[in-house]
Amino acid sequence: VHLVESGGALVQPGGSLRLSCTASGFTFSTYVMSWYRQAPGKEREFVAWISSTEAASYAESVKGRFTISRDNAKRTVYLQMKSLKSEDTAVYYCFGARNWGQGTQVTVSS
What is the SS3 assignment for the chain? Predict the structure, then answer.
């Protein structure tokens, strides 16, 4: 199993960003895929998940601002983030098939 995140960047408050996580080594379309994040000095926390049938759930802190989606043909899960706040600054991790990606840094700062 291999998960590779991309798309992290420095963005201004109020801005938008889309993260991607491309998977290999398992039957991607049948698995729930999730995004987590870890801010400096804090525990890793749940952000969103999406099921194989594209049902989704979000942490309260991102509900209405973030959207998780998936493209099974590309074996990729996305996290569209808008109205970003400084408190969204973190390393964002993809999780699926009991494995973690290496993370991608998102920094929200002016």
Answer: CEEEEECCCEECCCCCEEEEEEEECCCHHHCCEEEEEECCCCCCEEEEEECCCCCEEECCCCCCCEEEEEEHHHCEEEEEECCCCHHHCEEEEEEECCEECCCEEEEECC
